[in-house]
Write a structure and sequence with these properties.
By secondary structure, the protein is an alpha+beta fold. It has five helices and 14 strands.
Length: 238
C-alpha cells in the first residue's frame, strides 16, 4: 500500500514527511512539492530549487522490508531513479558516486537517503531534488534540467505521479547485492576515463575503477596508484 501527499510549499520534504509517518500505516508514504525553501543535500550541503520549476520528492519505506545493506539500498535507489529518467529522456543517464544523477554531463538530480525511527519503526527516507523546468544555473554548479538538456517540457504533477509509481514498484523487490553492485558500476559516471580530481587541495589525474559494497570509490591516481575513498575525501573536477 502506498500514499502520496502534495504540499503547496514546505521547507524540506525530508523533514515534513515525519508528520505523515506519525499517523499513517503504509509501506510507502510520499510527500512532494514544487516549492521547497530549505532543501538539504548530502553531508550537510544545501539543495536550492527554483519554485514551480522543479520537484522536491521524499519517499519513506520501512527498513524491515529489506535485507540488503544500507549501501546497496542507496545504490539501488540511484539505479532506479536513473532508469526512470533514461526512459523519459530517451538517452543514457549516469550515476556520479555516491548518488547524483547525471544527464549529458550535467547534474539533474541530487539524492539524500537517511535512516530514521518513527513510532518504533525504522524507515529509509529517500529525498530527491529533480531539476525539470529550470532554465538557468550557476556555471560552476555543473547542473542542468530535463528541459535544458532534452528540450522537453514535462508537467510537474504528472512527472511526480509517474516517478512515485515507478519507484515504489521497483523498490518492492530488490535484486541480489551482487546484481545491484554490477548495475551501479555499469552506470558509474566517468568510470575507466581519465578525469581530474582534487585531493588534499592538490589536483591530479586519475581513473575511476569501481564502487564497492562498502560504499567506497576506487580510483587509480596518477601519482599515488589505486586507492579507495569515502565521500568528501576526494573531489571529481571532471
Amino acid at each position: 500500500m502506498s500514499q502520496l501527499f502534495y504540499l503547496n510549499e514546505c521547507s524540506s520534504t525530508n523533514d515534513e514527511i515525519s508528520k505523515f509517518l506519525l499517523y499513517e500505516n503504509s509501506d510507502f508514504i510520499t510527500v512532494y512539492t514544487f516549492n521547497q525553501t530549505k532543501g538539504r543535500g548530502q553531508y550537510g550541503n544545501t539543495w536550492s530549487s527554483t519554485a514551480e520549476k522543479n520537484l522536491a520528492y521524499t519517499l519513506a519505506i520501512r527498513t524491515e522490508n529489506f535485507t540488503a545493506s544500507d549501501v546497496m539500498f542507496n545504490y539501488y535507489t540511484a539505479i532506479v531513479i536513473s532508469d526512470f529518467l533514461a526512459n523519459l529522456a530517451e538517452t543514457q543517464v549516469k550515476i556520479k558516486w555516491p548518488n547524483d544523477i547525471i544527464l549529458k554531463n550535467k547534474k539533474i538530480v541530487g539524492i539524500l537517503i537517511e535512516k530514521k525511527k518513527f513510532n518504533h519503526r525504522n524507515y529509509f527516507i529517500i529525498g530527491a531534488g529533480f531539476n525539470i523546468l529550470q532554465e538557468t544555473f550557476d556555471e560552476i554548479s555543473h547542473a542542468g534540467s530535463l528541459l535544458t538538456l532534452t528540450g522537453k517540457r514535462f508537467d510537474l504533477h504528472k512527472f511526480a505521479l509517474q516517478l512515485d509509481e515507478y519507484l515504489t514498484e521497483r523498490l518492492k523487490i530488490l535484486p541480489s547485492e551482487k546484481e545491484i553492485l554490477n548495475l551501479f558500476n555499469e552506470k558509474l559516471f566517468r568510470k575507466d576515463e581519465i578525469s581530474v580530481f582534487e585531493k588534499d587541495k592538490r589536483r591530479q589525474n586519475g581513473i575511476i575503477r569501481n564502487a564497492d559494497e562498502k560504499g567506497e570509490l576506487w580510483i587509480e591516481l596518477e601519482d599515488e596508484g589505486l586507492q579507495s575513498f569515502y565521500h568528501k575525501e576526494i573531489k571529481l573536477l571532471y
